[in-house]
Amino acid sequence: MNINPDIDKPIFIQIAEQLEDSIFTKVFPEETKIPSTNEISVLLNINPHTVLKGMNMLVDEEIIYKKRGLGMFVKEGAVKKIRKKRQSQFYDQYVAALIDEASKLQMSKEEVISLIERGFEHECNPN
Hints:
5 helices, mainly alpha
């Protein structure tokens, strides 16, 4: 985990996002234990309460849960929930902006689709 205290994003949000990403990429599979608040706070040299605040965000989103006396665990279905959340964010951050810019450029739906297809072709055949 890498925390950057010099950016505007609060540290607890950075922690939540990095834990979420580790769950999404199956570094921490569903129904497995994640590192404790103390382990993460020592690793990153930050206050355990800051780590807990980030973890509580994931608890509120039902991505992780606490087993009393055992620690925090990844909830079953967490990856699906994260994927759905990220797809929604993808639309909000990229697709809506793309459509808005295409509209300003007076591009048709077909022209936009053609550009996207060209991008996929380039990605699949980079040479």
